[in-house]
């Protein structure tokens, strides 16, 4: 079954277009490394919870919108191999030049994890 990496981050609402451009620039690399697809979703109905929620999880500020993203891989092995290659590319590939292509969010507040697919309908 597929393996999924999930990400939640807070992006300045004013930087929506900048985020879209960043994702369009960087996400194709994931497909080169074996990902089936990647998807970035701009929060429209993200509500505050009683105890916790997406907003609290990433310490979102009033001027920020939640982005939920995921990368689907065919399996864990392909994902592990792809992520290892990605780490190497991030050090040498021009597409990861942070001066030319700055990350449009505070990655220290991003949450992420890898997930085994257990039900697919």
Characterization of the model:
The protein is α+β, with helices and mostly antiparallel strands and 121 residues long. It has one domain (3-116): Alpha-Beta Plaits. The protein contains 3 helices and 4 strands; from the N terminus they run βαβαβαβ. The chain has helices spanning 16-32, 54-57, 76-92, and strands at residues 3-12, 37-42, 64-73, 111-116. A 4-stranded antiparallel β-sheet has the order 2-3-1-4. The protein is globular. The protein starts with a strand and ends in a 5-residue tail after the last strand. The mean pLDDT is 96.
What is the succession of H and E elements? EHEHEHE
Low-confidence stretches: none
Return the CATH architecture: 2-Layer Sandwich
Give me the side-by-side strand order of the main sheet.
Answer: 2-3-1-4
What structural class do you assign from the helix and strand content? alpha+beta
Question: What's the level 1 CATH class?
Answer: Alpha Beta
Cα separation of the termini: 12 Å
Strand content: 25-35%
Arithmetic mean pLDDT: 96
Number of strands: 4
Shape from CA axes? globular
- DSSP helix count? 3
Which range best describes the helical content: under 10%, 10-25%, 25-40%, 40-55%, 55-70% or over 70%? 25-40%
Main β-sheet: number of strands, strand sense, barrel status?
Answer: 4 strands, antiparallel
CATH topology, by name, is: Alpha-Beta Plaits
Q: What's the gyration radius in Å?
A: 15 Å
